[in-house]
Design brief:
Elements (H helix, E strand, L loop, with lengths): L2 H9 L2 H16 L5 H12 L3 H28 L1 H28 L4 H33 L4 H29 L13 H23 L18 H6 L3 H31 L6 H23 L6 H20 L2 H4 L1 E2 L2 E2 L1 H33 L4 H8 L1 H21 L5 E5 L2 E5 L1 H24 L5 H15 L1
Antiparallel strand pairs: 1-2, 3-4
Length: 469
């Protein structure tokens, strides 16, 4: 084989030009979900409460969805501009966060430091998250047209797996980068140094992904008059209830997922597994990534991808109902006596909600393409990710309000594995009542509002015709 042929081969290789750059981009931006690893340290270091610092993560998810919604057309037109924008925004936002953490350590209770973190981690990184999340998705769907679910699941699994991979690294860096005697409010200066080091590392990873990312040579992106109907015209060409149903069930799945995931660490401690909280967090992240890949690969063999959402909601409703009926969180560990059946049920709920949460993300672009085609998929997918933006402000904040305000009187301090923890099993169970009801609403939307795609209808008609022969 000639050198030119070899060069042409790798330039048109779907793994090198689609899958690998998608993983590089998504495994970088997916570390936004590592926030819980260092949120308390940031709050302590700059002299603010944890609840004040938590808004940085909420803003990051909000601006992720909003930037995807409003910049979807840019991604549609030029994935190189969008992936470069994502690289610059994510890395600079992370570096800026490190700077303002350092500044907050030097100027305790500084409003400037807190607002700076909101802007850098929330807004600037949020824009990088939204454009970085969208950029590889359509490209993968074009490279893997026969297995679109597997392809997008692979990339989005990278987003979910990022937490499992980066969490132990970040935990080690927090200690390893701290200088002796550098503690402020009990936290070493490794916290801001970590952000600066990671900003450089993720810039390199994302920039390599940006350079490699390329649509197939045979794909011609329509421009100008060729473009055809606009995004909104395409959406309105089908029953509008279908899009509203997809948006709402996507929103509910994220809201319920964030509500439970935000309380996951304390629930694990409450059921008597405080010493294994880190391990459980890693396992749940693996389920999150596995759900993204598994549910989307499963959908490739289905006539109607909406069936996957029905499966996700039914599993979530069943496990939530069982834990509610058994009062699993409250009864799993009473006076140090663990009920292993209830512990397993609570863990099964946590793990499967994580899997369904991830699966909801990986299936939505393919479900949208089945209904609306590929011509405006990045823009339509971006608009749908506005559901993620709003869920980012409502999911964990709703759970926090229930646990810390509505059921605050039920909290108590207990000793688990020799350490004191404030737990609120009544609060956690109450969160399940809300998420269980929301999952039922989502299932009803999936059953009655989201209509079968044309592809599903054709498959059903073909099966009926074959049966009548």
């Amino acid at each position: 084989m000639s050198e030119n042929a070899k060069a042409a081969g790798w330039r048109e290789n779907k793994w090198i030009r689609g899958a690998i750059p998608a993983l590089l981009l998504h495994m970088s931006i997916g570390t936004v979900y590592c926030w819980s690893i260092f949120s308390q340290e940031i709050a302590d270091y700059i002299g603010w409460s944890k609840s004040s610092a938590e808004w940085a993560f909420s803003f990051a998810i909000f601006f992720l969805g909003m930037s995807a919604a409003f910049l979807g057309n840019i991604v549609e037109k030029d994935i190189h501009k969008s992936s470069l924008l994502a690289t610059i925004c994510f890395a600079s936002g992370m570096a800026g966060t490190g700077f303002f953490i350092w500044y907050g350590g030097q100027h305790q209770h500084s409003v400037l430091a807190l607002v700076g973190i909101y802007i850098c981690y929330g807004f600037i990184m949020g824009v990088g998250l939204g454009t970085g999340y969208l950029s590889p998705v359509k490209t993968l769907m074009l490279w893997f047209q026969d297995r679109k679910g597997l392809a997008t699941g692979l990339a989005v699994a990278g987003f979910g797996a990022a937490k499992a991979i980066a969490s132990p690294i970040m935990t080690s860096m927090l200690t390893g980068l701290s200088s002796a005697g550098s503690e402020i409010n009990g936290v070493g200066n490794g916290i801001w140094k970590m952000f600066l080091v990671l900003a450089v590392a993720y810039f390199i990873m994302m920039f390599v992904g940006h350079l490699l990312l390329k649509k197939p040579a045979g794909w011609h992106e329509p421009t100008g008059a060729e473009k055809g109907p606009s995004m909104f015209q395409v959406i309105k060409s089908k029953p509008i209830g279908t899009y509203i149903g997809i948006w709402l069930m996507f929103y509910i799945n994220i809201t319920c997922g964030l509500a439970l995931i935000s309380q996951e660490k304390m629930i694990v401690k409450c059921i008597g597994l405080a010493a294994m909280a880190g391990v459980m967090s890693t396992i749940s992240a693996i389920f999150n990534a596995g759900g993204r890949l598994g549910f989307s690969a499963m959908a490739d063999g289905m006539k109607d991808r909406n069936t996957v959402y029905k499966i996700i909601f039914i599993i979530s409703i069943a496990l939530t109902g069982i834990v509610i009926l058994t009062n699993g969180i409250g009864n799993a560990n009473v006076d140090g006596n663990m009920n292993m059946v209830l512990v397993i049920l609570v863990l099964a709920l946590i793990f499967m909600v994580n899997a369904g949460y991830g699966g909801g993300f990986s299936n939505v672009p393919n479900l949208l393409s089945d209904h609306y085609g590929m011509s405006n998929i990045s823009a339509i997918h971006g608009l749908t990710l506005s559901a993620w933006a709003i869920a980012g402000l409502t999911g964990n904040q709703m759970a926090s309000f229930i646990v810390n305000k509505l059921c605050a009187s039920s909290a108590y301090t207990t000793v688990i594995d020799g350490h004191e923890y404030t737990v609120n099993p009544v609060g956690y169970q109450t969160v399940l009542y809300v998420t269980g009801a929301l999952y039922i609403v989502a299932l009803l939307l999936s059953l009655f509002l989201v209509r079968p795609s044309q592809k599903a209808l054709e498959a059903k008609a073909a099966k009926k015709a074959a049966a009548n022969k």
